[in-house]
Amino acid sequence: MVYVLQQLLSASAARYPEKAAVWARGRSISYRELDERSNQLAHLLMQGGVRKGDRVGLFFPKCVESIISMFGVLKAGAAYVPLDPQAPVDRIGYIIGNCGIKVLITQDERRRSLDAATREALEACVVIDEARESGKGTGVVPWPALMEYPASHPPVVTLTETDLAYILYTSGSTGRPKGVMLSHQNALTFVEWCADKFQITHEDRLSNHAPLHFDLSVFDVYNAIEAGATVYLVTEETALFPTTLAKFIETHRISVWYSVPSALVLLLLHGDLKAERLPHLRTVLFAGEVFPMKYLKQLAQLLPAVELDNLYGPTETNVCTYYRVDRERLASMDKLPIGIACENTEVFAVNDKGEIVTRTGESGELYVRGPSVTCGYWGDVEKTRQMVVPNRFQPNFEEKVYRTGDLVTLGEDGNYYFVGRRDSMIKSRGYRIELGEIESALLSHPAVREAVAIAVPDEVVGNRIKAIVAAHNRDAIQSAELQQYCAKRIPKYMIPEIIEFRESLPKTSTGKVDRVGLSQENLPLAV
Amino acid sequence: MGKAAQAANLFDSSVLTFQFHTGDQQQMATEETTIKDQIRQFVCEELAGAKGITVVGDNESLIENGVVDSLGIFRLVTFLEESFGVKIGDEEISAENLRSVDMIEQFVLRKSGR
């Protein structure tokens, strides 16, 4: 019986020991090696003081060691926290402090880039590259040290499916990122559903396009391992260039692809995609944002034999609904549904009166119930209480449901359709962005009096960000300076591309900043 | 150019925070040094600036340091096409040609037969 994620690896390692499990940057490792190295890393981590329930940070660009680390941490009974290698060190330091990471797996240079307080809080750093001799400090463990530990078996740790497997940090409206806690059960519910729904086999070759701190990667990694397939990690450098990415899919004979729609749109527009060059591609999954219909229709035409599935779900539930694209209906469709609930998951919409939506055409906030739902946000009881609420529609026993904050409509076809957000969270390139987090960063600058961040809709990436700022003294601050200031606090994808200065921000009759008015002023020009 | 670049231009034209490749600069672009200057200026002020990055070495990877993202690449390509009169095919939009200011300059020089 499988109840923790690392069992997926041991089963496949027993079955396909010499088969490639992971490929990255021109290097691959077999199932046996992945199993053995992660056993060794688990022993090393425990020797270094990691205990069941601890959090271990992973802070380096995607490579084979990323996957070894994920399994090594799990085998030590701990939860891993993938940290965005491109995020500002201030944010990384915050996350390390927030969830109490004491052991970090990283590169030597990145370790040095952390502020002194963060470095001091860390008890040990495992460095995956060569630590410079002079830089070796207390608590710095070079990666090759793991070879001294037992490879044949993992340490003995008692776990249950409710133990945490990983924490994924997403944008928080109050100015700081929040850590979504996901258990083994949460992850396995999704992985087992995908294994069944998409019939992943050991002959498949999966891509991993999303960064590892992004929940799309859970499918790529664990479903590949579950099936005894191979996962090919796409690096930033490959992901940036559409023709390079198309060649990657072709060369590695990728059979199952999963990414945000904007990556597929760029491939479609600039990747020189041709069905005959991708004969192995059988399934394309996408999630994270709304796929523009115009481009989805083009993609469906370009890849006539490929199954297309729209997956929907916030990180807190991973995926909770799906829609398999019906090619016959597609031509006449003007909006893509988010579909119906995944098996072992229930979704329902709750209208303004607090009733469950049952009539077609009616809208409400989508609620999610089932074993894929997070138990909450790390160290934030208040936020958890707001979002993961008692299920008052089920009176028999205590149970929680997750309020997605997404407004949906129940369509005549029985599918749900995404309408918008209840709050000011937006998506850009699939990234979740709380406009409030950007505003907090701007407002923390002493020269800024008022600031509002708005989303400017964009056909390819979903939204682009603009800020409107009123400064105490207009001459005292430039937009470039403010962007630099933001870069120390928020990830690059959240920094406003344009900052417009005004004397003051327009207000509504109740004295609040007129977001709606500002957003309407900033609609994109017709393309 | 495709939609991404068009979208990038539309967005930029709505509010101009920086003014680039003015007539004067285009005339000066016949010399190698100024080609590099123009590239450096665009990369630093248009791409790096909006990401809050202040210093970009000529040799530095724009990919690793996060100066370019998926839309930045297409803004860069549009800039090169418009400023230097070169036509860049999708297959040329690659790390080999566009990784750093130095490599972009080399690429532009090759493309324009200089």
How would you describe what is shown here?
Chain A contains 17 helices and 27 strands. Chain A is of the alpha/beta class and 527 residues long. Chain A has a five-stranded parallel sheet. Chain A has a five-stranded mixed sheet with strand order 12-13-14-15-16, with helices on both faces. Chain A is globular and about 70 Å long. The mean pLDDT of chain A is 94. Helices cover 57% and strands 0% of the residues of chain B. Chain B has helices at residues 3-14, 23-28, 32-48, 70-84, 95-98, 101-111. Chain B is mainly alpha-helical. The longest helix of chain B has 17 residues, at 32-48. Chain B has six helices and no strands. Chain A binds chain B through residues 86, 236-237, 239-244, 262-263, 266, 269-272, 429, 456, 458-461, 464, 466, 479-480, 483-488, 492-493, 495, 497-500, 522, 524-525, 527, and chain B through 2-4, 6-7, 10-11, 13-15, 17, 45, 49-54, 63-64, 66, 68-71, 73-74, 90-91, 93-95.
Q: In DSSP terms, counting alpha (H) and pi (I) runs of 4 or more, how many helices of chain A?
A: 17
Strands of chain B, count:
0
The fraction of residues assigned to DSSP E strands of chain B is under 5%
Q: Compute the average pLDDT of chain B.
A: 77
Largest sheet of chain A: 5 strands, parallel
Shape of chain B: globular
Characterize the overall form of chain A. globular
The strand count of chain A comes to 27
